[in-house]
Specification:
By secondary structure, this protein is mostly helical. It contains 6 helices and no strands. It has one domain (about 5-170). It starts with a helix and ends with a helix.
Length: about 170
């Protein structure tokens, strides 16, 4: 594996990670109306934000080699080869995607469970809700739930996603 292959894997996985986080946060924000569609300036900023994110995602996933050349990531290394014992780019993609998926699940499970507990606590008869339970958020529940679903999807389909990302790498060369 060359240093360019290693940088290619890292940039593609970084693009997938940023795209997943952006989609999760904006989907729930749009759904629950945190973005006011009546304001032209906020709509314009939202459209610019979406366009920039899609452009960065496209550059990180599909135009990785040109990004490596622009950033000059392959220069000033002692050797062109990275010594790995039979580790391929598919293996790296697979491990990193599983890590991203598991981190999404673990990070958001506690948040979702606590928010659901606070919501259910309000509906227990003859119990005075605490101040904390009055502050439950459907936004947090939906964001955490979607993050868990995406995390499980990525973890369970990591090998297929790794093959797809590696195929995109081989086509760009």
């Amino acid at each position: 594996m060359t240093t360019q292959d290693l940088y290619r894997v890292l940039l593609k996985v970084l693009g997938v990670y940023f795209f997943i986080n952006y989609i999760l946060s904006n989907f729930t924000g749009f759904y629950y109306g945190y973005i006011d569609n009546d304001s032209l300036s906020q709509s314009f900023v939202s459209l610019i934000s979406i366009a920039v994110t899609l452009f960065l995602f496209y550059q990180l996933i599909f135009k990785t080699d040109s990004l490596i050349r622009i950033l000059k990531l392959t220069s000033n290394h002692d050797s062109e080869e990275v010594k790995t014992d039979k580790v391929t780019s598919i293996d790296l993609f697979n491990v990193i995607l599983v890590f991203i998926g598991v981190s999404l699940v673990v990070h958001n499970t506690i948040t979702m469970l606590s928010q659901v507990y606070y919501l259910l606590e309000l509906y227990i008869p003859n119990k005075v809700p605490t101040i904390v339970s009055k502050n439950y958020s459907f936004y947090s529940i939906s964001y955490s739930g979607l993050s868990i679903v995406f995390g499980l999807f990525i973890t369970l389909n990591a090998s297929k996603l790794a093959l797809w990302l590696n195929k995109k790498t081989n086509h760009n060369q």
